[in-house]
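Allow me, if you will, to draw on your knowledge of protein folds for a short while. I have a record of one protein: its chain in single-letter code and its fold written as discrete structure tokens. I should value your view on which stretches of the chain appear to form regular backbone elements. Thank you for your consideration; the sequence and its tokens are set out here:
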Amino acid sequence: MNRRHFLHAALGSAGLALASNPLWAAINHGGHAGHASGSPAMPLKMAPENISLLPVNALPAGQPHAILFRLPNLSSKPAVVAATITAEPYEAELIPGKKTVVWAYNRSIPGPLIEAFEGDTVEIRFVNKLTQASTVHWHGMPVPADQDGNPQDAVPAGGERLYRFTLPVGSAGTYWYHPHPHGDTSEQVYRGLAGLFIVRAKNDVLAHLPEQHLVISDLRLASDASIPDNNMNDWMNGREGQFALVNGQREPVITVGEAQRWRIWNACSARYLRLAILGRKIILAGSDGGLLERAQEVSELLLAPGERAEWIVAGPAGAVSLMALAYDRSKMGKVAPEQDIRLASIQFSQDSAAKLPERLRTLPPRIKPVAKKRVVFSEIMSMEGGQHSMQFLVNGKSYDMQRVDLTSRLGDTELWEIVNDSHMDHPFHIHGTQFEVLDTTLKGKTTPAPWRAQKDTFNLKPYQSARILITQKHLGLRMYHCHILEHEGQGMMGQVLVK
């Protein structure tokens, strides 16, 4: 039976009727909360599908765009950035007159912005005041494997550790950090744990432009302003909240005078952002791993969960809207139609124009690959024993913390083919390095990448494949996975050992 037909028939036309069935929570998803594949599956936390939610207008809108909290550098040594980040639950007043228990770094949502330059040594003390084990994963950054917050290196509840790494020349870009304990990543992120990291180049050709930072996330609040657990629909499709936020605000007002450089993060667990500025073109200057070689003018830009971008924003005076336009990522089951979302109002206070160099960056020449690898994302539906279950797999296997799936040699450039053999979009992410997309293939048509870019996260449409060039420059174990966090946590993750 076709997967979509199976789900529709199994769940019924009245909605996701199994949402309150505790048996569904026993999905064999290949381990949870640090358990390896093959060991008994831990029950998934499960909220009812029909839980009462606050209306979107319960969160005030229209405030001035908030500036991110910058983490102070406590080091007195040159070229050293030292600080402490603490993950802990606390009560915040997100809705006027109501208290919400959130989990946050340094009681800040979004988490603090860390800034460093290429060549700096970073020393971050992490204190875990959660009741769960956690890690800090430096998403997209070229850090040693034993410093990258892998699931195997979880910091226990009440524990702490020091992350220490040096940022190489050429690593300037827009990054972020978030938890990565196996099985609990999605909950820790949707309750608020995510922070930002900018690595700056000392010879940045865009350093003259003022910056705006836009961290786009979403939030779900029940009618009592609490953050509910995932429901069955979330475990299938990935969690999306009713509130789409920019720097923790609903529909803020962003003021633009002279031309600006915007850094944009998709920090959502599963929401795709088809971004557009209504009535204006977008000047795309950078992606995950830093600047493009040349700026590109586009009408819209799709950011999958985990992806980042840099824009140059300028234009005639006036008011326009920043939108997340509807995007169909082929969700499973009975779901509401996708809708456009207004993320922010942009007020251009004066006419402005962007003056950019013809070349923003020179990427190194492509190196001929010496090895090839193939990674396939897939899904399996089952009604074994009368119980509905689902698996998210990589190369036909569910994640096992004790298993090495692939082996690579340090410094080798490899050609990887990434395949989405499923009905649903999945964003591919790999730890510890950037890659370059060469081309994509869909329905027999191969399309070259529109421009050269350094990426660590790339979306694949249903039955689409991509060829990427990738080089690992640190020894150790690296994760690669779908960056829809609920899919990652249910098994859509593998491990490559760099030797």
